[in-house]
Amino acid sequence: MLEPKKIKHRKVQRRRGQWRGKAWRGSRLAFGSIGLKTSETGEITARQIEAARRAMTRSVARGGKIWIRVFPHNPVTKKAAEVPMGSGKGSLEYWGAVLKAGTVIFEMDGLDEKIAREALRLASHKLPMKTKVITKIGS
User: Fold this and answer.
1) Whole-number Å distance between alpha carbons of 52 and 33
2) Which of 17, 113, 19, 120 minimizes the C-alpha distance to 67?
3) DSSP 41
4) How far apart are CA 73 and CA 33, in angstroms?
5) Rounded to two decimals, what is the model's pTM?
6) 25-80+89-135: CATH number
7) Which of 63, 69, 72, 96 sits in a 20 to 30 Å window from 3, CA-based?
């Protein structure tokens, strides 16, 4: 699973004010000819990225090339169940990434468009937000 090798701070604030708006960085295809783009803003975990990647890889039977365009940099903490208020911030629960609407998550190349679309459709079922398939021509 994806996680940073080294971080400056073990626990960070959530930066919830930056969830608004549309993405302008990372909103176009850069490597492949077909990709999966978010239609809404949300948070994605490292486990969800890995699950989607596995679904795509199994679908294409190790053919073509896949690029993962997002990385879970943000440490998300959680306090244990039934713990009273206070006594500090909770322990690290998972690594996540905040994605704005329009961010490209995955790209593919070297496959027939029909096969690639099916693989991206399977990957989209593993993700917590609405997505759409885009191509180089009609992105």
Assistant:
1) 18
2) 120
3) -
4) 26
5) 0.91
6) 3.90.1170.10
7) 63
